[in-house]
Amino acid sequence: RADTRALHWLLRYLSEIETPLALEKLLGFAQCENEVLRAEACSRIAKVSEKAREDILLELLNAPYEREVCFAVRELGALRLLRAVEPLIALWRGRLETKIHIEILRAFRRIRDPRCLPEIERWFPESQGGVAQYEALETLACYATALRPKFMKRCMASPQRAVRQMVYKIIARFPGRRWSLTIAHCLEKETEE
Q1: What is the dihedral of CA 144, 150, 154, 155, to 10 degrees?
Q2: CA angle in degrees (0–180, nearest 5) for 67-83-125
Q3: How many CB atoms lie within 10 A of CB 96?
Q4: Which of 18, 38, 70, 162 has its CA 20 to 30 A from that of 8?
């Protein structure tokens, strides 16, 4: 039973020495029951060198607490770590919390790996609107500008009206007769809802 000040210095020390045992202990503090210790451990993890932080953050995705999982997802997105895509997709399928889904969408937007597109497209019709659906649209918009024709045509054929509207707005930004003809053709098919 140590006081808060001693634990603060312990966590600071563990993050600075960066040995495997110290990083394992730091990860353990980030998953403990005490909320204050978890928050302090996460702030210390953010200051660890990038290579060591990658492994800790990937392990932290399995934490039982939503706040720490969101922290790990946010940090992995900031690192734009390609090897985090598969664990993030697994987390996307395994956790139902909206906050975690929003953070995963934001991480997908930063990482920009096409492997996550099928998950977003599969999930989008099930989403209930609100912030999560808005984040999904923003993420799809990022991919649409990167992947262009093939992806945008697939989005224009989407049964989701919001997805089609998002693509029309993106296409309107592109110069050229080809896209204006495509959008005119698709808008002819649209019904008034």
Answers
A1: 20
A2: 65
A3: 7
A4: 70
